[in-house]
Amino acid sequence: MTVHTSRSSVLGRGNAEVEDTVATAQITDVAAQPLAPKNPQELGDHAVVLGASMGGLLAARVLADFFRTVTVVERDVLPDDPANRRGVPQGRHAHALLPRGAQILDELFPGFLDELVVDGAPVLDDGELSKLYFTFGGHEMLRSGKAAVDHKAMATYVPSRPFLEYHVRRRLQTIGNVTILEGHDVAELTSTADRGRVTGVRVVNRDGGAEKELTADLVVDAMGRGAHTPAFLESLGYGRPVEDHIVMHTTYASQPLWIAPGTLKEGIVLIGPVPGRPTGMVLLGCENDTWLFTVYGMVGREPTGDRAGMIAFAQEFGPPHVLAAVRAAEPLGEVARHRMPSSQRRRYDKMRRFPDGLLVFGDAICSFNPIYGQGMTVAALQASALRGCLRHGDRDLSRRFFRAAAKPIAAAWQLAAGADLALPEVEGPRPLSVRIANAYMDWVLTACESDAVVAGQFLKVNALVDPPSRLLHPTFIYRVATVNLRRRKGVHQCPRRTRRTRVATWR
User: How far apart are CA 304 and CA 312, in angstroms?
Assistant: First the structure.
């Protein structure tokens, strides 16, 4: 992405240029509602979102309440059904919509969760632990009885990524002031001559190469971890944000399957890595009786690209009855593989200077090791933070938003980074605080094997419903200590296990 500076004459063209772009470009055809009367909360005429993945769609939904028009620029031509697409290669693999993310989606799109279920997405909302097979760091979570949580608040919806993104996109397209501009690359951001404000974006039609400039009061970069905003900021003289990385080299392979109804009582199977075995697996029962089988490895442990090889890869740690069901399943598609070199966090919240009229969103701020499935829910939490900031106007918006977004990002990063660094195979600094936290989490997970209250609180933290600090509440610590003491005295007899360490849940 290069820099283009423009003088006030460019800004003076306003929405006329946007309307020209909408008239000539390939636009998603939807039955949208007409533009509403001017909203007293409106902060500007036009906002542009770069990228129509989950982060970009949620950002656009929030902006629609505060700007006269919103344009989402997307390089792909978007499918008319829940299909995988080139711009989201990770969409072929296991994703999780955490309970907190589901709650926010239903706030942004009222009735959304009911629509998912009506269209075939499973929901686990009765607290039955027998429907979950979770093993974290060698600890098998309690698998009988009811979870000691509010079952509705902790309802887990299990759509595939394409199915979920399609439904979000469909709902967004019914909002009258939102337009999706498909099949366009982002060529460059534009700015004022003094480089103090971003004024829009220049886009190129992938079918023919025609260029257009979209002027905007606000541009939101939601183009993922490969976004070029750091280079753009550097070219304007702002410097780049500091980046945090944890290098784990995750490789995962997935295949959609059909498993005969009634074969498995579990709806979600998750086996996490342990020291000495940086590998794991996930099996999700998704929409319309389809299943998604994923295996993954880190730091050089890579699954093969065929189902027999995937099953062999999981043979060491997968539950036998689950692997038998996978072996007997009918394939619904080819095996897909994907690699993720590192977790990456760009600290925009630490920058001393930042241009007006620009925000960064979603994976473009922070992308996590995908085995923890945090990305979609963290994007939803950022959308909630953005909405809160816009309700207080656009003054000093970038500073306020990056600081607000940093809070949920930090909570998710703490869980994922701590889990990765619990594996000695993953390189990275392990200060005393990390070592103490991982030792304590092993203690918590030991209690999760037999106590529904401890397991329930742990799951709420991993679902990003509660902050990690809830695991340090004196009452909870006392409960964990009591359960472990009783266990040592033989009140709860559980099988001896190999060396354990804390690994966060697949989110």
Answer: 9
